[in-house]
Structure formats: C-alpha cells, structure tokens
Design a protein that fits this description.
Elements: H1 3-6, E1 9-12, E2 15-18, E3 31-32, H2 38-50, H3 60-73, H4 79-95, H5 107-120, H6 123-142, H7 171-179, H8 184-194, H9 200-204, E4 211-212, E5 217-220, E6 235-238, H10 241-250, H11 274-283, H12 291-304, H13 309-316, H14 320-327, H15 334-339
Antiparallel strand pairs: 1-2, 2-3, 4-5, 5-6
Length: 354
C-alpha cells in the first residue's frame, strides 16, 4: 500500500476521515468518508482529492424543502404527495444528531434508523420510508452535487413480499353500504370509490367536466387542483349504470362534485371525508372500509367477474405489472371455467351451430 494513498486518512471513532493539506495557510475542515473499511476509505479519498470542492449545504430541513419544490416543479410529486414525503423524511431528520448535515449522514446511521422503523412498523412501511430518504439523497448527489455518495445505498433492508390485496367488500356489503347511506355527499364518495375506483384525492377534487353522461364515461384529466403523472395516470373509465342513475338526481356541481362550497385551507385535502366515512362504516359493522378499500373492491370484483387485468389496470390508472401483482390471484382459474355450464353458441337466426 502506497503512502500517498493513505495520506491524510485517520480514524475518528469507527469511521475514516480525510484531512486535506493546507491551502494558502488555511487548513480545510476534515471530510468524513462514511466507511469503516480502509480499502473503501482509500478509494473515496482518491475521489475527494480529484474533486475537493463541493457546493456547500444548508440546513437539513431547507435542503428537504428545496428537494420537494424541485420534484413538484417537474410534476413528479402532487401537493399531497409532497406533504406526505416531507413528514416521512422530516422524522428521519429529527432523529439525526442536532448539527447533522447532508454530507455527514452515514450509511450506518440510515441503517440504525431503518432498523428502528422495523421495530415499530411493517417491513413495507419501513421500506417506503427508506425509499423516500434514498430519493432525497439521490437528488443531493446527482442534481445538487452536495454529497459524494448516497448513504442509503448499502443499507440492509428486509425483503418486502409482493402481497396481494386481501381485504375487499363483497357485492352484498358494497350495495348495503350504498343503499343505506343517509347522506347525499357520502353516497357520492361511495359511488366513486366502489363503482369507479377513484382514489381519495380524486374523489375530493372531482370536477363536472370529468363526467360525460351522454357517453356514459368518466374522463379523468389534469386540473389545477388534481395533477396526474406517470404513477397516477389520467384515464377514461366506463360509467356503470348504477353511477349513471345516481348522477341523474345528484347532478353535475360546480366547481367540485363533492362539497363544492368547501374551499382549500391549510390541510392536505380540500375536504376530508374520513371522519364521516369512519362513523358510517362503523355503524354498519364494517369499520375496516376506507377509501382505499373501496378502490380495491372495485378492482377485485371486476377481476373476479373475469374482466382482464389489462382493462382493470387501465381503469385504475396503474401499470399492468402492479395490477397483476395485487389482483391476479382473484382471476377465474381454468378449472373454474371448465365447471361453468356451457352455453351453445347460436347463429344469427338463433339456430345452434353444428
């Protein structure tokens, strides 16, 4: 091992640091190499010597806010997604040492935080938080160039099983919830969730121009309050007869279909129907029903009835891969089809074909 390769390297605790030589009589601050392995430290030290100057970073919260603004401007994140990710990553920042910076965060710290999440939440929830933190540091690395590597890379994460959606309403439960609903606004929520598969925010931000009664379809397109992207896609959904009949009496209301008199405040949602829905489904002895469950019910019952995964994915605004992962287990099997009574096909004049 050459002396030049280890020049300036030293251990502080478990981690290697690099002290660069003085420049114009001023000694630079030591740089953490974020590794406990000497070979890796030598490699990283060579990278630092090649490019010793980096863009200075501001406070962690400010850095996070700039990241989310960047994502919003590029239409990668909606307003609600931006707020949700802020709270997820903010929890990680609050857990870090008080004077931490983006350059000082280590893989070991991220690992400790991830392990802590595993002790409190499911592997899926912990993995989602880890991916949000990784996206932030990827931006710091590739766009802002304020870190030399993403500290999330190298974290040992638990495998997240591709679990199918399990809980959804039967047709009888769905119809009972809709038919016995005493409130007109809540009934619209149930209709759009159970019979169109809309997400919670889509229900809240639904506008009249999405509803084409003459064509019996919903055309979900971007509006000033409901952007779409490659993850939450605009789409056209056939309008079921039961939804069409309801809209005949409910009407098309401006500027929003649901509670048009309510204006956007400081909360994530313009109007949040969660409390009303929870109280109602609890009284109906179905306390587990949420807006998400209504969307899963829409897709699950379609697949059970033999609708193709491709069509269901198109109507949900999801990819075929994601839809197949969650709902393919509900599709009729070949042996199920064989057990169904065969219906003889008939010609145009109604006579059986031989």
């Amino acid at each position: 091992m050459k002396h030049d390769e280890t020049r300036g390297l030293y251990l502080r605790g478990q981690y290697y640091w690099l002290q660069l030589p003085m420049v114009n009589g001023i000694r630079p601050k030591p740089i953490t190499l974020q590794t406990t392995d000497l070979t890796e430290a030598i490699t990283r030290a060579m990278e630092v010597r090649t490019n010793p100057v980096m863009t200075p970073a501001s406070g962690l919260i400010t850095e996070l806010e700039h990241f989310l603004i960047y994502k919003s401007q590029r239409k990668n994140y909606s307003a609600s997604t931006r707020k949700a990710k802020f709270y997820v990553v903010r929890s990680f920042i609050d857990w870090l040492p008080r004077h931490a910076s983006v350059q000082s965060v280590t893989t070991e710290q991220v690992q400790q935080y991830y392990d802590r999440l595993l002790g409190k939440f499911s592997a899926a929830t912990a993995h989602k938080a880890l991916m949000d933190i990784r996206a932030w540091f990827r931006w710091e690395l590739e766009v802002e160039k304020k870190v030399r590597r993403n500290p999330v890379i190298g974290v040992r994460a638990e495998p997240v099983p591709d679990a199918p959606r399990v809980r959804f309403c039967t047709k009888e439960q769905r119809d009972k919830l809709i038919n016995e609903c005493p409130r007109e606004d809540l009934k619209l929520v149930l209709m759009l969730g159970f019979h169109a598969g809309l997400r919670k925010q889509e229900i809240i931000q639904a506008v009249p121009r999405w509803f084409h009664l003459s064509e019996r379809s919903l055309d979900l397109c971007a509006t000033p309050t409901m952007p779409f992207n490659r993850y939450k896609k605009p789409r056209t959904i056939p309008m079921r007869q039961v939804l069409f009949d309801f809209l005949q009496s409910y009407g098309l209301r401006e500027p929003f279909m649901l509670r048009p008199e309510v204006k956007k405040g400081k909360d994530i949602y313009r109007y949040d129907f969660d409390v009303v829905l929870k109280n109602y489904v609890k009284a109906q002895k179905l306390p587990w029903v949420t807006a998400h469950v209504m969307r899963h019910t829409f897709a699950s019952l379609l697949v059970q009835d033999g609708t193709s995964i491709f069509k269901v994915a198109k109507w949900l605004g999801d990819t075929v891969r994601v839809t197949e992962k969650h709902y393919a287990h509900l599709a009729p099997k070949d042996d199920d089809i064989e057990e169904r009574p065969r219906i003889k096909s008939r010609g145009r004049k109604g006579t059986p074909r031989h």
